[in-house]
Amino acid sequence: MVKRARMQSVATAAMVAVSAIVFLLAATISLQAQVARTLQDGVFSDAQAIRGQSLYAQRCAGCHGPGLTGGAQAPPLEGAAFRFKWRQEPLSALFIKIRYTMPPNADDAARLTPEQGADLVAHILKANRFPAGKADFAAADAATSSITWPSAPAAGEQPPNVVARYPPTGTVNQLMRGIFFHTANLIFAVQEVDPTELPGQPSSDKPGGITIFDQGLMTYTGWLAVENAATSLADASTLLMQPGLRCQNGRPAPIAEPDWIQFTDRTLAAAKRMYRLAQMRDKEAISEFTLELSNSCNACHLVYRNNGGRGRGRGATPDAATVGARCMHR
């Protein structure tokens, strides 16, 4: 009897262990399925798309056109160019763009609700021939959704490569000094300054008054300045992959090196995330995420930018050894 009870206990324990394993496997598969969802998996419902279509006619068609084909003041929301533009972003980026920035220059009372934003996303996806599913695209977590676009565009959808037609004019160094340095610093400033006060006003006792440079900085201010900085940083990151781009020393930029590509992708992703946070007016999240932006820049500098030698002070000129070592893998 004791032996039989012991065998039953072992069998029960084995069944519990197997059940636990099956449960964990099922949970893992379910989690992976959620993480890996794309627009081909039916992430919105037909009913939601119909609601979005009605709302679009009321709120959006005047600018973007009745058929989502664009107008004089707004781009198309349907077609190959639209899908190509958004395919490297999570679906949450499109939702944030619609929910927080449309219609342009609207006050808070005229802003779309989360549910309206989600409905419009559903209509746009339906118009772009993505399949509907059984459930709505949930508004509650739309801003953080991990749903992605298909990994590759449909055949013939990629716009022609214009890079070869427009070779780079400047060097990596000029891009860094002309775009990256200023825009990144404006974003970093959000850590200490309320974005509504950016950029800062020139000092009242400044000799000679306000310069043309100061006037340019004061034209677009507040959160719009942060958005502009993030978008320019993102688009400038893609310039680092231009065929024909050279470094300050004349050496070709190592655009085929895997880590150069990785560093570029990381900076691009950080800048795009910054843009979405700026659209959401989330100062705290931007302040925290500036660490990722800083780390993405430093990771590349440690490998391809020589930090030694002279030329680290304001207005100083780097020595020949410093310049000569740039864009060389270390």
What does this structure look like?
The chain is mostly helical. The protein folds into two domains: 39-144, Cytochrome c-like domain (Cytochrome Bc1 Complex, Chain D, domain 2, Orthogonal Bundle), CATH 1.10.760; 172-324, Up-down Bundle (Four Helix Bundle (Hemerythrin (Met), subunit A)), CATH 1.20.120.10. The chain is 53% helix and 0% strand. It has twelve helices and no strands. Helix 5 packs across helix 6 (114-127) and helix 9 packs antiparallel against helix 10. The longest helix has 34 residues, at 2-35. Residues 13-18, 20-34 and 308-316 have low confidence and may be disordered.
Order of helices and strands: HHHHHHHHHHHH
Mean pLDDT: 81
Question: How many domains in all?
Answer: 2
Distance between the termini: 72 Å
**Helix-strand category:** mainly alpha
Structure summary, number of beta strands: 0
List the helices and strands and how they pair.
Elements: H1 2-35, H2 46-59, H3 61-64, H4 80-86, H5 91-101, H6 114-127, H7 172-188, H8 212-219, H9 222-239, H10 258-279, H11 283-304, H12 320-324
Helix pairs in contact: 2-6, 5-6, 7-9, 9-10, 10-11
Index terms:
330 residues, mainly alpha, Four Helix Bundle (Hemerythrin (Met), subunit A), 2 domains
